[in-house]
Structure formats: structure tokens, C-alpha cells
Design a protein that fits this description.
By secondary structure, the protein is mostly beta strands. It has one domain. It is 4% helix and 28% strand. It has three helices and 19 strands. The strands form six sheets. It has a six-stranded mixed β-sheet with strand order 3-5-7-8-9-10, with no helix packed on it. The longest helix has 5 residues. The protein is globular and about 55 Å long.
Length: 344
């Protein structure tokens, strides 16, 4: 059971149920101040899905997961008419995710089978930007959450065998989060704190895929995560979140450290955040962030025009305008994964 609290003490409980005697695990329960609608569909024998969406008015969330091993956790919080569609198919691993709100928040996620390239961008009137890339030939595991009112930037990258993950978030309060994941056990904790002091902790473990989400309102703004990495080096005075590697046989949560003032921070020489992560962190207020690699996608024919449009299109009338208008071409890799930048 997942309980998500926000400013108005809204509770969202997700309860797994079975239906139609096909080992279908259904999660569908949403309570908000006014007209919050949540539909979750899981079509798999073992797929575990946890998804929460809480808004003040008319938040609509539909998630579909079709895979034998893929585990997906996704949360979206907006003030008005946030729509999220997620599709994941097992063998070809095609994922399409679009989010359209009254403030024109757009979110598209695409996952391709063998190369497993995932691109996700979200730009709203309040300059919320989200880009996610996943490269893995095995089971795709994705955890992404974006909660903000102004200028929240989140970029996540995951690469195949070494499972390197880089995640950064910068809001109006200059909250910055970078997470790196280098392990087959895939221990991940990611949190995003917005102006409303919403706190979200997500844990994902690889084989058993245990997921825990908790939300706190009016709490202290903290970003905690654990991963296999050494403690970061902090260049200067300011506020930073640091971590320490888990010890043998145990795990340790990161603690808030006092580090450099800027958002650009490189804790090691790997290639996951020496792409253009840092140069985008501070200019997510530019509108060029939206759709910068969603504009020429060769995936539109099979991502959005599949057999699921019959019951996806009965939602808000503004959800389909962003479903396949952008032609994302992921092979251009606007964030060049092979690029490396010297350690400052």
C-alpha cells in the first residue's frame, strides 16, 4: 500500500487486486480534493507497478505495463489537468509516455528494444524539464519523479551492463540531485523536493524489484539516495547533497553535505554526467529545452499508434496532441554518452 500526502493531506492508496483470473494485478485508487482520477493497468504475470498522481483538480493518470520482468514506478504531480500515459511492451520494450496539462506540460518517453534508448522531455509553462535515457538489453527498470512549481530540471541516464545512472534536479530553490548507479543489484533512491516541500523516496532493487514510495508534506527539503559510488568532492561553499558508498553486507543512506554553490558537480570521471547534463541544469528556463530531441523520432509509427489507442483516447481531449506530433530521433543522442569531460 502506498500512501502519498500533500499540502491538503490528500491520501492515495494503491491496492493490488486480481481480475479476470489471468494473474492481473490492478492498482486503481485515487482520492484528491476534487476529481482526481487514476487508472492503472498491469498486464503481466510478474510485473509490479506502483504509480501515484495527486493534484488539486482533474489529475488523470493511466499507466500500462506489459512485460514479464519490467518494473516501472512513475509519479506525476501537477496543479491542473496533468495527463500521463505510459506504455511498456515486453519483447520490443517500447515505452511511450506523454503528459499534457493546462500549462502545456509535455512528457514523452520512448524505450527501444535492443539498444533501449529512452528519451523523455517535459517542458511546461513553469519550465519543468525532464529527460530520461535508458540503455539496457535486459529488463528495463525506470524510476522517475518530477514535482515542482517552477523550474525543476531532471535528467536521468542509465546504461546497459555497468548500469550508470545520472540524475539531476534543479528547482527555484536551487535543489540539485545527481545519482549514479553502478551495480547489477540496482539499488536506487531518488527524491525530488519542490517549492511545496514534497518529499518522495523511491527504492528499486534489481531482481526482486522491491519498491517503496513515501511522500511527506511540509517537511524539510532533503534529497537522499544510495548507490554504489564514492563520496563526491565538493568544490566550494553552498548546499549540496552527498552520499557515501554502502558497506559490505549493509547499506547506508546519504546525508546532506555542505558543498559547492553551483549546480555543476562532477563526483567522478565517468561518462554519465560528463555529457551536457550540467550545461542544461541552469538553463532550463529556456524554451529550447522542450522537444530538443523529441522532434524527429522514428518511433512514432509503433509507439503511439498501437492497439491501445482505442481506450487511451477516451481521456482528456488534449492528451493526444502530444502523443505522436514529435518525431524523436534518439540516435542523434543530444546528450552524447561517449563524451567525457575532465574532472575539475
Amino acid at each position: 500500500m502506498l500512501v502519498f500526502k500533500r499540502k491538503h493531506k490528500v491520501r492515495l492508496k494503491l491496492v493490488f487486486k486480481r481480475k479476470h483470473k489471468v494473474r492481473l494485478k490492478l492498482v486503481s485508487s485515487a482520492v484528491s480534493e476534487t476529481k482526481t482520477y487514476l487508472r492503472v493497468r498491469v498486464r503481466s504475470s510478474s510485473a509490479k507497478l506502483a504509480c501515484s498522481s495527486v493534484s488539486e483538480i482533474k489529475t488523470y493518470l493511466r499507466v500500462r505495463l506489459r512485460s514479464s520482468s519490467a518494473k516501472l514506478a512513475c509519479s506525476a504531480v501537477s496543479e491542473t489537468k496533468t495527463y500521463l500515459r505510459v506504455r511498456l511492451r515486453s519483447s520490443s520494450a517500447k515505452l511511450a509516455c506523454s503528459s499534457v496539462s493546462e500549462t502545456k506540460t509535455y512528457l514523452r518517453v520512448r524505450l527501444r528494444s535492443s539498444s533501449a534508448k529512452l528519451a523523455c522531455s517535459s517542458v511546461s509553462e513553469t519550465k519543468t524539464y525532464l529527460r530520461v535515457r535508458v540503455r539496457s538489453s535486459s529488463s528495463a527498470k525506470l524510476v522517475s519523479s518530477a514535482v515542482s512549481e517552477t523550474k525543476t530540471y531532471l535528467r536521468v541516464r542509465l546504461r546497459s551492463s555497468s548500469a550508470k545512472l545520472a540524475c539531476s534536479a534543479a528547482s527555484e530553490t536551487k535543489t540539485y540531485l545527481r545519482v549514479r548507479l553502478r551495480s547489477s543489484s540496482a539499488k536506487l533512491a531518488c527524491s525530488a523536493v519542490s517549492e511545496t516541500k514534497t518529499y518522495l523516496r523511491v527504492r528499486l532493487r534489481s531482481s526482486s524489484a522491491k519498491l517503496a514510495c513515501s511522500g511527506k508534506s511540509r517537511g524539510e527539503s532533503r534529497l537522499m539516495y544510495m548507490l554504489h559510488s564514492r563520496a563526491p568532492r565538493c568544490p566550494g561553499a553552498g548546499s549540496w547533497v552527498g552520499w557515501s558508498p554502502p558497506r559490505s553486507g549493509g547499506q547506508r543512506w546519504a546525508s546532506v553535505q555542505s558543498c559547492g554553490p553551483g549546480l555543476e558537480h562532477d563526483d567522478d570521471d565517468d561518462d554519465d554526467d560528463d555529457d551536457d547534463d550540467d550545461d542544461d541544469d541552469d538553463d532550463d528556463d529556456d524554451d529550447d529545452d522542450d522537444d530538443d530531441d523529441d522532434d524527429d523520432d522514428d518511433d512514432d509509427d509503433d509507439d503511439d499508434n498501437d492497439d491501445d489507442d482505442d481506450d487511451d483516447d477516451d481521456d482528456d481531449d488534449d492528451d493526444d496532441d502530444d502523443d505522436d506530433d514529435d518525431d524523436d530521433d534518439d540516435d542523434d543522442d543530444d546528450d552524447d554518452d561517449g563524451a567525457s569531460r575532465t574532472q575539475p
